[in-house]
Amino acid sequence: MLDEFEAREARDVEARKHAAEEEADLREAFRLMMDTAEGKRVVFWLLGRAGLYANAFDAGSEAAERYRLGRQSLGLEILQKLDLVDARLYPRLLLERGEARELERAARDAGGKAREDGDDQYA
Predict the structure, then answer these.
(1) pTM, entire model
(2) Which residue, among 29, 7, 35, 51, has the nearest Cα to 93 in the 3D structure?
(3) What's the pLDDT at 112?
(4) In this structure, what DSSP letter does residue 54 have?
């Protein structure tokens, strides 16, 4: 009986060790992904598709509401993993995305003003 208990305990210790290694590998994969512009783009797209900032409530369809809640739940899991890797990753992602949008807006505004003034006739 004791041998069975010891064997089970050894399997449990090994399973916990394996799970910890898997978690460490996953965290490293998230960190590496967030080190690239392409990885950040994918994460931002996934979080957008998750609808984190959308209202999940749907008075007409309980199934649709549950569907949206499920998507939001996955998005929250992604955010949780990012937070475990580095609590600054998601705020930085939002700031970078906001800065990129402002640059795009400024370029559009500058392009529109140049055309209005006729300054870009040779551009």
Answers:
(1) 0.75
(2) 35
(3) 73
(4) S
